[in-house]
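Appendix B. One record, verbatim.
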Amino acid sequence: MDNIKQLKADELRWHCDAGQFAFATTAELEDLRDVIGQARAVEAMRFGIGIEHEGYNIFAVGAAGTDKRAFVHRFFEQHAQGEGIPSDWCYVNNFEQPYRPHAIALPAGQGLAFRRDMERLVDDLRTTLTAAFESEEYQTRRQVVLEEFQDRQAQAFEELRQKAQQKGIGLLRTPAGLVFAPVREGEVLDPEDILKLPEAEQQQLREEVEHLQDELQKILSQIPRWQRDLQQRIRELNNEIAGLAVGGLIQELNDKYAAFPNIIDHLKAVQKDVVENAREFLVPEEEEPSPLKALTGSAAQGGHGSPALPNRYQVNVLVDHSASTGAPVVYEDNPTYENLVGRVEHMARMGMLVTDFSLIKPGALHRANGGYLILDARKILLQPYAWEGLKRALQSRNIRIESLGQLLGMISTISLEPEPIPLDVKVALVGERMLYYMLWQLDPEFADLFKVTVEFDEQMRRDDESLQLYAQLIGSIARQEGLRPLDRSAVARVIEQSARMVGDAEKLSTQVRSIADLLCEANYWAGNAGNGVITANDVQRAIDAQIYRSDRLRERVHEGILRDIVLIDTQGEKVGQVNGLSVVQLGSFAFGHPARITAQVRLGKGDVLDIEREVELGGPIHSKGVLILTGFLGGRYAGERPLSLSASLVFEQSYGGVEGDSASAAELFALLSAIARVPLKQSLAVTGSVNQHGQVQAIGGVNQKIEGFFDICQARGLTGEQGVIIPTSNVQHLMLRQDVIAAVAAEQFHIYPIETIDQGITILTGMPAGERNAQGQYPEGSFNERVEKRLIELAARRSELAPSAKENES
């Protein structure tokens, strides 16, 4: 066929002309302010940030290396600077229910001021209360109360004593307590003297003593009540004095925070609690307790949720925005459940774990509240209950701090239940497409919470404008990383490598991470060479070094072929045998190598056996490609007669899985060769998929496949006959190495683009494929005529054998 032409050297690679750049080095370029190649993502981010309805959170999806997180962070930062600063949030003690601390919102920067005011209040309370309770007025009034109690008690005993005296009985105080005894002439009678008295007088004394004893018991029973009355009067006096002392201090804060009802309510509770526990401010702990302290009871001790005085009056500033200049933008690198929603810490005290409101710690949602939160989707999904915690917060629009133990009901220890804090945040998840679509499919709540998809593309269109912007991008990365500037030739070489990364001469890579890595390595080699700027040679050396560090397996595979351990022919001709091309992907490194494909044909019922599929080494796409071959054979050669063959196809010496349909054209060539008994040139390798109409379709990894076969041929010695057959639609993707291009220019290696199987047959066999004439017949001596003739022979032979088979059955 006259339209079959091999590619010229200048068609094998797009070269970036360094002369189109007006700068000498990237040091002359301004930083790139806009994002290039991500117009769809930019528009989606603007929409996601602008819309304020519930559920319009963001999921940034794309391949690794597209710098999604930096992109999202930069957009959030730009918008956050123009937004208002959110409130500070504090937790304070709940004096009625200490296990449920109160949350208080304050304008930005006021949280720390409120905490300092409360710390100052505690200090002032010590001085003021000490002075109040040491004042002469207080001591006098207290003494009056004490004397009243003492006088009342003394009067009761005196009345009883006088009553007993009138009856000749004295009230005596002994080590055993108060007792009554008869008295005569001022002397207490001895027991012997009492026994000498007449019996009637003794009986009268006993009755009178019993009567007086009853009255004494009544007095003694009233003493505890008098003591309670005394304590109550002293307590009221203490409260009155404390109230007068504290009132002025609290009023100053009331005036300062009059605009905040929550703080006013809290200050009322503080004042009440201080008055009730004023004794705690009077004597340092190392000193002996005063009579007042002993009289009014022991101090309140801190426990679970109830901190010891005076810590209970402190303020736990959970979120402080005193240094903020706009809305917060937070990235949580370790999104565990507690790092997201906050936690309540505990302290060991006397063998117990205790806690209070001052041990409440914020999570990422607290810090980002009123602004933006960025999370890595994979990381949060790997953390137990973190994903559920995030969804619960977004759905309820509240941040509720609960430990996992409480959440799961696994612990029964007393802990805190902090008052929930209202949540207003825009969340952006960053992750791969697989995670996004899995969440969309498997989590029914996901679609309601993350309604904005920011799609990142791994490649961008190449044109004159994008080349100039890409040069700015390279310069920006070099400055950000602290690298040497690049000259024009180095920029051009980096751009060429960018096209190579995406395997398309008309596209450029947007995987900024890979470009940054290449620049860093080129800077290293420039330093080794003593260059002040990065040159094209430095970039090329970095590329070569990357390949060398990763190509151990490629070297072993090629070594196996060159030592004839893996059988690959690069000369001669063989029937039913062709060189296919495969690509192996190892991380970021991919390489190609040839693989022998063979076919065997025999009389049968029209089935093509895929040996790879039968032994479960072939993937579904590869199996589909083989089944297409049966459709092609039947459609072209057996439209009016049965397809009477059985064929088997296999990748020889394949010990791993085979997937993809890029070898289906090579398999068809081997199958047709086996049917027609026409040998194929082993100096050529083939790649491309085929459809049922015989059209050859594009495949991936075309550059690596060509170079893989070229490396084997070059190692064995180029003969001028070797080459590769590729789909015509893959020509636009060619970005081949310079040594391959040089060999093509010297006509030592050939690359043939084809559109149909017939074109490939002509190249591989050297004979015309042949087209049907008006009578529906192929030209005599053409390849297709030989295929059809063989199939007719097989069909006739099958017909001959059919009666014999029936007779044997009967």
